[in-house]
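Sorry, can you check?
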Amino acid sequence: MSSYRTETNILRTICYIVMIITTILCIAPIWLLFINATRSTPEIQSGVSLIPSNNFMVNYHILTNQGLNIWRAFGNSLYISIFSTAVGVYVSMMTAYGIKVYDFKGRKFLNNFILVLVLVPMQMSIIGFYQYMAKLGLLDSYIPLIIPAAASAATVFFALQYMESIIIKDLINAARIDGCTEFGIYNRIMVPIAAPGIFTLSIFGFVGSWNNFFTPFILISKMEKYTLPMLVQTLRGDTYKTEMGAIYLGLAISILPVVIVYLLFARYIVSGISMGAVKE
């Protein structure tokens, strides 16, 4: 018994050490990014520092006084992320609900087809998507960045796995007997039951939309409609090449919402994924 406890304590200690090292490796780059946002270019070039400097406002003035409206781009990204997340999560959960609840011809094929779509990279269809949006006159518009989120195969796939673990058909049949409509069953019964999964999908959807650079870069050409990742990309130009502190500050502003979301809602992400992985 004593040897068993000793072995358990050793394994536990090793696990703690590995987790501490992993945590440091994950946090260190982000911490250094925020630290460098407060330092001047000579200070950054002089070496690594873990302590903030006093050059934050100088970097901010350099960043905003060169013709870049970073807060407008921040608002553009926020607008796109909120609406694309709302549309994508609501429609994807409804799609998953329909596939799991209704018995129709081709149901199994549709389920497998969604899995295949998850494996197809978005870059393979971007040329056709661009041409289609051009014919519809939707270039330089946020509509192609919001509405297609409703057809996200990855979101539907996760929703399918989650719905499979929470759907209670007896409850749905009881609601039908009571005269509730199909949309009423989904909105009044399934949405509250699926709240943890919806919350998890919303977090992933928001972060994915916020970090999306490729699709807006293809579709948006007017600078006043740039998203934040697109605007940060322009910091690589000659204007900011020697202003490393301003560049780090722009990167820090772009990553700050993602860090806040994960810090505030990490427990919901874990609980939502765990609940979706359990089948009754």
Observations:
- The domain at 66-276 is CATH 1.10.3720.10 (MetI-like fold).
- The chain has 14 helices and no strands.
